[in-house]
């Protein structure tokens, strides 16, 4: 007991040990959170204006109170934007463009990610003669401006009979998504301990067996990153959609442009705002549903060199 008392007295004399607790409201924290709040307001304010405008009637909008909440909520602008708004001679709203976008999005995402994941796996674990040159050429392709390749792709799609079709646009999105996705998968697979790969080779596993049984189960975060990037890029694309498709196969973004920029009749701002929100719902839902996995994928090697 005497020794314990002496030890306790020595600790009391020396004072508390360990790192000094940080103040909750230090200058650095106030500056950090203040900056985050200002940036959040900068991005959320337009979204708020769009949302409240989309549930107002035109008489209320004409009063000019942009930031005021609606006096009487109406969802008729949303109904009209989805099923009744005119885009040229068609008056079926965004519904046709939505299903076109879905038909473009799903095969484009599956094809581009499936091929890029195999490319990244092969380039990180199965080195072959000229692999670095091939990878360099592939990455250079990611930085070539799209505009310089528009006309050659038009000729190519015309020659193979896919110009103006949904599958032609699927091919374009798959090809243009390949370089950056290959880089992401290559860096992620390179961050996985090499011992796992070597042990599988010693046990007699081949290329596809290692890919499906070892690499894929460990690659969920980077697949989520790739899906979010592709879904966002493909769904929000306007340039390729307006060039490589025709009115019957226009994606949702082209339909939105036709609704918002229509010069016929009365300018219905509530319908325009509702159409814009409808167009952006799919990427938002996918991002919020998988946000944690997206951060994990980025942190686990998605941007490592």
Relevant CATH superfamily of the largest domain: MetI-like
How many structural domains?
2
CATH topology-level name of the largest domain: MetI-like fold
The total strand number stands at: 0
* Average residue-wise pLDDT: 83
Count helical runs.
Answer: 15
Largest sheet: none
* Poorly predicted regions: none
The dominant shape is: globular
In terms of DSSP E residues, the strand content is: under 5%
Q: Which bin fits the share of residues in helices?
A: over 70%
CATH architecture of the largest domain: Orthogonal Bundle
Radius of gyration: 27 Å
Distance between the termini: 59 Å
SSE topology string? HHHHHHHHHHHHHHH
Overall SS class: mainly alpha
CATH class value of the largest domain = Mainly Alpha
Structural commentary:
With 305 residues, the protein is mostly helical. The protein folds into two domains: 48 residues, no CATH class; 208 residues, MetI-like (MetI-like fold), CATH 1.10.3720.10. 71% of the residues lie in helices and 0% in strands. The chain is built from 15 helices and no strands. The longest helix has 31 residues. The radius of gyration is 27 Å and the shape is globular.
Topology, element by element:
Elements: H1 2-14, H2 27-54, H3 58-61, H4 76-83, H5 95-125, H6 131-142, H7 150-159, H8 166-191, H9 194-202, H10 207-218, H11 220-235, H12 239-244, H13 252-260, H14 269-289, H15 291-302
Helix pairs in contact: 2-14, 4-14, 5-8, 5-11, 5-13, 6-8, 8-11, 8-15, 11-14, 11-15, 13-14
């Amino acid at each position: 007991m005497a020794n314990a008392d002496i030890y306790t007295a020595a600790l009391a004399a020396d004072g508390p040990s360990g790192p000094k607790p940080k103040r909750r409201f230090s200058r650095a924290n106030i500056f950090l959170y203040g900056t985050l709040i200002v940036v959040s307001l900068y991005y959320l304010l337009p979204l708020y204006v769009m949302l409240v405008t989309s549930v107002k009637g035109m008489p209320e909008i004409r009063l000019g109170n942009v930031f005021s909440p609606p006096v009487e909520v109406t969802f008729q602008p949303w109904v009209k934007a989805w099923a009744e708004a005119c885009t040229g001679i068609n008056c079926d709203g965004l519904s046709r463009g939505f299903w076109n976008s879905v038909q473009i999005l799903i095969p484009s995402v599956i094809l581009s990610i499936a091929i890029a994941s195999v490319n990244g796996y092969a380039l990180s674990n199965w080195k072959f003669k000229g692999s670095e040159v091939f990878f360099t050429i592939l990455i250079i392709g990611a930085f070539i401006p799209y505009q310089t390749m528009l006309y050659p792709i038009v000729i190519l799609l015309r020659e193979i009979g896919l110009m103006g079709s949904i599958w032609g646009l699927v091919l374009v999105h798959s090809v243009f998504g390949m370089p950056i996705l290959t880089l992401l998968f290559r860096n992620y697979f390179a961050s996985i301990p090499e011992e796992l790969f070597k042990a599988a080779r010693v046990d007699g596993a081949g290329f596809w067996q290692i890919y499906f049984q070892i690499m894929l189960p460990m690659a969920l975060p980077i697949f989520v990153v790739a899906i979010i990037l592709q879904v966002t890029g493909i769904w929000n694309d306007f340039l390729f959609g307006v060039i490589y498709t025709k009115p019957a196969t226009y994606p949702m973004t082209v339909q939105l442009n036709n609704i918002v920029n229509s010069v016929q009749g009365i300018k219905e701002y509530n319908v325009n705002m509702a159409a814009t929100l409808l167009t952006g719902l799919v990427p938002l839902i996918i991002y919020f549903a998988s946000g944690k996995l997206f951060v994990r994928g980025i942190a686990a090697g998605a941007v490592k060199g």
